[in-house]
Amino acid sequence: MTLDMVRSDLGPAGPLDSADAMEARLREIGEKRYHNLHPFHHLLHGGQLTKGQVQAWALNRFYYQSSIPLKDAVVISRFRDRATRIEWRHRLEDHDGAEGSEGGIERWLQLTDGLGLDRAYVESTAGVLPATRFAVDAYVRFVGSQSPLEAIASCMTELFAPAIHEQRIAGMLAHYDFINPGVMRYFQRRLTQAPRDADFALAYVREHARTPEQRAAVCEALIFKTDVLWVQLDALHHAYVTGHIPPGAFVPEA
Ligand SMILES: O=C(O)c1cc(C(=O)O)c2c(n1)C(=O)C(=O)c1cc(C(=O)O)[nH]c1-2
What we know:
By secondary structure, the chain is mostly helical. It is built from 11 helices and no strands.
């Protein structure tokens, strides 16, 4: 990887000679590349999708949700440092829950139940788009194969998540009669969970990326992750808005 890889959508990276310069670059990446900008999200939040299209989104997003604990378990496995493992551990519980307490995956299934999807079908992941599977699996592999610093950096899209969650809660409640506050609890909960996670990751990379090369690697990790998110929406749009559903993928009822 070159230090200042040219990106047509981003300004010149500059020297990345400080944590502040790196943070400014990370925020620019979020501003220009986060999936809040994707047309599929504009349709979703603006009430312009049919119930079947919203079902397709929720079904595919389940694959992302259910892979996050696998990803976080891999991140934990990268650290011999006990303090970092302890800090990261709560993410597993946030998503998986624990005995007697529901987690994010259960809350996501309440959303797919509310949309009328069969739980066993959702959990089987049989109907997800191939591109969803490839993108999400690439994220899990990334945190295992890149440096531990890049593994942590890749979750920093969450810095930009609260704004999109707010838009989604308000937009979907306002526009769809099949959406109610009960099924939006997943996003309500993330409004407090995501900032904690993102703030830890940002502080971590600010402290541990000590050279311009390491700071560039952190920025590249965030770019990779914005691609992971973006490509999932490209695939949803192609399949369910343009209408080219790949063989074997979920087909909404007419
Ligand atoms: O709805 C969204 O737009 C959105 C985005 C992201 C993200 O930015 O990766 C996450 C989530 N939601 C989310 O709910 C979540 O649990 C989550 C975990 C992570 C991660 O990379 O560890 N990202 C995200």
